[in-house]
Amino acid sequence: MLFRNRFLLLLALAALLAFVSLSLQFFHLIPLSAASKNGVSSKSRKRIMPAPVTEPPVMDPVYEALLYCNTPSVAERSMEGHAPHHFRLVSVHVLIRHGDRYPLYAIPRTKRPEIDCTLVANRKPYHPKLEAFVSHMARGSGASFESPLHSLPLYPSHPLCEMGELTQTGVVQHLQNGQLLRDIYLKKHKLLPSEWSEDHLYLETTGKSRTLQSGLALLYGFLPDFDWTKVFFRHQPSALFCSGSCYCPVRNQYLEKEQRRQYLLRLKNSQLERTYGEMAKVVDVPTKQLRAANPIDSLLCHFCHNVSFPCTRSGCIDMEHFKVLRTHQLEDERERREKKLYLGYALLGAHPILNQTISRMQRAAEGREEEIFALYSAHDVTLSPVLSALGLTGARFPRFAARLIFELWQDREKPSEHFVRILYNGMDVTFHTSFCQDHHKRPHKPMCPLENLVHFVRRDMFAALGSGSTNYYDACHKEEF
Ligand SMILES: *[C@@H]1O[C@H](CO)[C@@H](O)[C@H](O)[C@H]1NC(C)=O
Ligand SMILES: *[C@@H]1O[C@H](CO)[C@@H](O)[C@H](O)[C@H]1NC(C)=O
């Protein structure tokens, strides 16, 4: 009897714990990823991304590739816009990677995958706003874009995709992102007045058609049938979004060392070398030439679009090859985090865009109603350094249509106090950042004070480099190596 009572008590305790853990997750007092993990190591607990129930316990290259494809499916969960009632949303800053695209390189001597980049309703994935998007873009030819953006097509249109072209999947991904942000930021939090003007937005994109089109798709999902005269996209010549302060010799030195690390890791992987050799034999070119064509980029496109891998008369490239290449990529990312050379590169590379973002936040915090929705349409090589610089070591490599969002909030009860939240692909990662890691232990502050981010960007990120610099210019020119 006693035994049975104790058992019931344990059961009740377990139920209570489960409930508490669930509520903590719900109110995101503790990050979801940390709570849902089995706690094998601190590394895996810090893993940020989706953590769906099916996530395998060990690194699975095929599962990781599926996440990377980010094929649109039913509603995903997202934590954007979650805040206590007495907080007011002041501004939102969105950094995206372009959506799904056709490969940048072809595998030598093989037929390129037959993927249709026209936008049509009877093909999956589909979005209810797809046709309206196309007709709206068709009316946008007189729109004002900063040179040379006006020479780019506003939506993809080739029956056989061109290299690097955005696909229908890519458009749908960003229509979805835009609609999700619309539901949260416009409908729920009324970020923009209904009579918004050009000054409320800040839009910037690199000069590729896929980034401009991704930005437009997101904007269309966010502001359907927007007035073309109120939309102005600026052109960013650098993938690091550093225009005006791109010259940074120390950053380049870090990058060279990082590339050397990458090269040495590759040499150590005999299975990888053997696999490149086998694949080169299939397509009958020297191994070096095959490697230079970056075959994993093409193979990921085959994989994401469910198109079988290329074959020749000598055989086929197959799933085993794909797995070896992907596994190596994942190992490379892991070593990259441990060796910290990339962190040096990332801190300097991400400074200009973070600096730009906090300046915009500070102006909004002062009550200026300008640029309260900022969109930077960018690349994996833009997001990746920003994630590392923020200290988000558990973040996965930016998938297609990845989104990193900075929200600025004001405490209505203490209007001089402003806070930030940071979200990566819908997950609240605020308390994973290096400048707000321990903050959630203080339950009366449910977000990260804006000053933490400001001090980090203006001062502490240089200290993290360890060269004794206190500003960007010094840190970029310090003779350290
Ligand atoms: C992928 O293609 C194969 C045939 O080529 C088909 O049987 C399968 O259902 C497809 N999978 C998906 C997810 O579309
Ligand atoms: C950072 O932002 C401030 C304020 O906008 C600006 O004066 C400064 O030049 C920026 N620094 C860099 C390195 O971009």
Automatic annotation (TrEMBL):
Keyword terms, alphabetized: Hydrolase
Classification via Pfam families: His_Phos_2
Record-listed E.C. numbers: 3.1.3.2
Catalytic activity: 3-O-[beta-D-GlcA-(1->3)-beta-D-Gal-(1->3)-beta-D-Gal-(1->4)-beta-D-2-O-P-Xyl]-L-seryl-[protein] + H2O = 3-O-(beta-D-GlcA-(1->3)-beta-D-Gal-(1->3)-beta-D-Gal-(1->4)-beta-D-Xyl)-L-seryl-[protein] + phosphate
InterPro entries: Acid_Pase_AS, His_Pase_clade-2, His_PPase_superfam, Histidine_acid_phosphatase
CDD domains associated with the record: HP_HAP_like
Keyword Hydrolase in record: yes
Homology family: Belongs to the histidine acid phosphatase family.
Name of this chain's protein: 2-phosphoxylose phosphatase 1
Species of the source: Echinops telfairi
Gene name for this UniProt entry: PXYLP1
